[in-house]
Amino acid sequence: MRKIVIAIDGYSACGKSTTAKEVAKILGYRYIDSGAMYRAVTLYFLEHHVAVTNPREVIKALEGIRLSFHINPKGVSEIYLNGLNVEDEIRSMEISQNVSQVSTLREVRTLMVDQQRKLGKEKGIVMDGRDIGTVVFPSAELKLFLTAEIMTRAYRRQQELFAKDELVELDAIVENLQKRDEIDSTRKESPLKKADDAVLLDTSHITIDEQVDEVIRMTISKAFDGRK
Ligand code: DC
Predict the structure, then answer these.
(1) What pLDDT is attached to residue 7?
(2) Pocket test for ligand 1, best of 38, 143, 161 (most atoms within 8 A of CB)
(3) pTM of the model
(4) pLDDT below 70 — which residues of the chain?
(5) Please, is 203 exposed, middle or buried when counting C-beta atoms within 10 Å of its C-beta (0-12, 13-18, 19+)?
(6) What's the 3-state SS for the chain?
(7) Is residue 74 packed enough to be buried (19+ CB in 10 Å), middle (13-18) or exposed (0-12)?
(8) What is the pLDDT of residue 227?
(9) 224 CA to centre of ligand 1 in angstroms
(10) What is the whole-number distance in angstroms between the Cα of residue 8 and the centre of ligand 1?
(11) 5-222 adopts what CATH topology?
(12) Considering only CA atoms, which of 6, 70, 4 is closest in space to residue 40?
């Protein structure tokens, strides 16, 4: 079966990364969480008090950032910022509240997209984010656009934070998700939108296992496309 590129985009907390991770594991593909890259940049900007309204300061700060992914002993890909594992830190509410703003910056996006394309040079990759099917890999063989009802998404995100001992009210999560959706979809630089050739998947009433099965089925069909 030939290897393909799978691009998964969609709103925050629709199960993109959970699906992408599992699909990659089953297929033996590499998984790249592009949101983790924007989150790691946000962490660096907050730690170094970078004024995001000052492009020169932003460019200078980006020069000091080195991102890499490493597979942990459980086989899960984790992000490193300048050699330090920041996988847990970047999932906090503080980062979630600032990441969409940082993601609007052209300088940040240009660098991230460039690094994402390099990471995906080989086929056999699953990447999730907001602009993967539209900007990063416009010729990906399989593109998905995930959506779900807001309360389902908020509840799922609350469970994830709870598992990390971070107790956050559902209302605060709903507000954060809606605000991020708004910024992500309306920004000037590569806004979140469904690629014309992406398959729309509403995950409100299906389980992760069903989502994963569906993506595997579509991948197999694409991987055998034109191979007669
Ligand atoms: O997938 P996530 O919630 O971890 O992403 C965090 C933020 O990063 C999201 O609100 C918008 C931004 N992002 C982006 O602009 N482009 C991507 N390809 C991935 C994420």
Answers:
(1) 97
(2) 38
(3) 0.93
(4) 226-228
(5) buried
(6) CCCCEEEEEECCCCCHHHHHHHHHHHHCCEEEEHHHHHHHHHHHHHHCCCCCCCHHHHHHHHHCCCEEEEECCCCCEEEEECCEECCCHHHCHHHHHHHHHHCCCHHHHHHHHHHHHHHCCCCCEEEEECCHHHHHCCCCCEEEEEECCHHHHHHHHHHHHHHCCCCCCHHHHHHHHHHHHHHHHHCCCCCCCCCCCCEEEECCCCCHHHHHHHHHHHHHHHHCCCCC
(7) exposed
(8) 58
(9) 31
(10) 12
(11) Rossmann fold (3.40.50)
(12) 70
Mutate to test the pocket of ligand 1, among 34, 77, 91 (most ligand atoms within 8 A of CB): 34
Task: Report the alpha-carbon distance of residue 17 to residue 166 in Å, rounded.
Answer: 20
Residue 115: which of 65, 71, 49, 52 has the closest Cα? 65
